[in-house]
Write a structure and sequence with these properties.
Helix content: 25-40%
Number of helices: 9
CATH class of the largest domain: Alpha Beta
Order of helices and strands: EHHHEEHEHHHHH
Radius of gyration: 17 Å
Number of strands: 4
Shape: globular
Strand order of the largest sheet: 2-3-1-4
Number of domains: 2
Strand content: 5-15%
Amino acid sequence: MYTALVELFHLLNRGVDKRQIFLDNQDRARFVHDLYEFNDSRSATNTIRRLPPDSPEEVLFDLVGRTSVREPIVDIHGWCIMGNHYHLLVSEKIDDGITKFLMKLNVGYAKYFNERYKRVGTLFQGRTKRIHVSSDAHFLHILHYIHLNPLDFLKGAENWRALEVGNTKSAMAYLDTYRWSSYLDYCGKKNFPSIITRDFFGDVFSNYKKTITSYLKDIELSDVKPFLLE
């Protein structure tokens, strides 16, 4: 039913040798900015080319959503930044939109990272992994799964995939403090709303926080494990 309405792809890439690629909030802010800036059929604006690698996160936040005219090549339905990898949930708006978007995103971020940390060589482990969301079961799991990933950082909740969360209330409170995903925007808290297309999942999950809390209490990853990229 759902997969007939939109063709979704779950994307993941991580650092070469599983190295950390987001070392501080400035790195995360830069990647958030790039998610917005590079999602355009046209070349990146002069603004991003002028941004020095040490641009403070406040400057980057201020630029997200400022471009008045854009031609997005993908719809980003969900995203999450972790320490050594990122997750995206996207659908294409133009032919080969995902490939074009990832080329700009990965090359652009790697160039920034290498310049900032004075390194050379490949940053990502290879081509971005992608998997087609081809069933309703997968569809109903995947956005929650992406948004729950930050629980890997919370002591006592690291084994959430095995239903070993500990305190669900504490886990959800932690997610409320983690701004490096689309979770807060789905919960109605303005974070980086310009990045995502929220209408589709917003209609499916009308009360997102209630839905994901129930999901965390009764998660059954065996239903979706064959589809996961990790």
